[in-house]
Amino acid sequence: MTATVAKFLWLACSVLWFAVRLEPRRRARKTAVRHSARNTREIILLACSLGGLGILPLAYVAAGFPRFADYPFVPLQGYLGTVVFLGALWVIYRTHRDLGRNWSVSLDLRERHTLVTTGIYARVRHPMYAGFWLMALAQLLLLSNWIVGPAGLAGFGALFFGRVQREEDMMIAAFGEEYRSYMQRTARVVPWLY
Ligand code: SAH
Predict the structure, then answer these.
(1) Cα–ligand 1 centroid distance for 169 (angstroms)
(2) What residues are in contact with ligand 1 under a 6 Å CB criterion?
(3) How far away, in angstroms, is 132 Cα from ligand 1 center?
(4) Does residue 44 register a pLDDT over 90?
(5) pLDDT at 29 over 90
(6) Whose CA is nearest to atom 11 of ligand 1?
(7) Can you list the domains of the chain with their CATH numbers?
(8) Helix, strand, coil percent values for the chain (each to nearest 5)
(9) Which of 25, 71, 98, 130 is deepest in the core (most CB within 10 A)?
(10) Distance from Cα 164 to the centre of ligand 1, integer Å
């Protein structure tokens, strides 16, 4: 594997991610939002994530920018990155299937919102974010550039750490004891660990 092939694989997997997300997004949007905790801070955090996981790597794959930060590509990182990205896509696909119309790109509660605690949500409360962490890790492995590689981890990390507590507070406000007891039997992202 070469650096160019790895860039292409990053792009192909990203297109797949977009495809996986299309139908759930269309379906969820049909259900009105009853309560939203979106604010300026949320929009800034979403922009960080989009920049790190989307815009920067796209610019890199398309134009090679910023070339000065390139480092020599090791084929093993390309193979590992591809496997991790495919794993991320599988996790994200499963979360959409289980979350159904309760999904939202930001902090929203929809009409007749239900608390999902089964399927991929049985052990961790934020499996979709786990999927995005994996995507960011895959980017680090696939793109051999000191700036663009880690940009996904930094951008998504900002969104995750800036959001997760607010999301859980919102879920507690909406579902009370039901969410509290769900929290007690689950980890945030990594089963049994965190
Ligand atoms: N944090 C979750 C969901 C991300 S989508 C994950 O990583 O898998 C974000 C939206 O999902 C939030 O607006 C919230 O309303 C909703 N949500 C989060 N956890 C949920 C759950 N267990 N059941 C139903 N909806 C949930």
Answers:
(1) 12
(2) 95, 99, 102-104, 107-109, 115-116, 121, 126-129, 167, 171
(3) 14
(4) yes
(5) no
(6) 103
(7) 3-185 (1.20.120.1630)
(8) 70, 5, 25
(9) 130
(10) 10
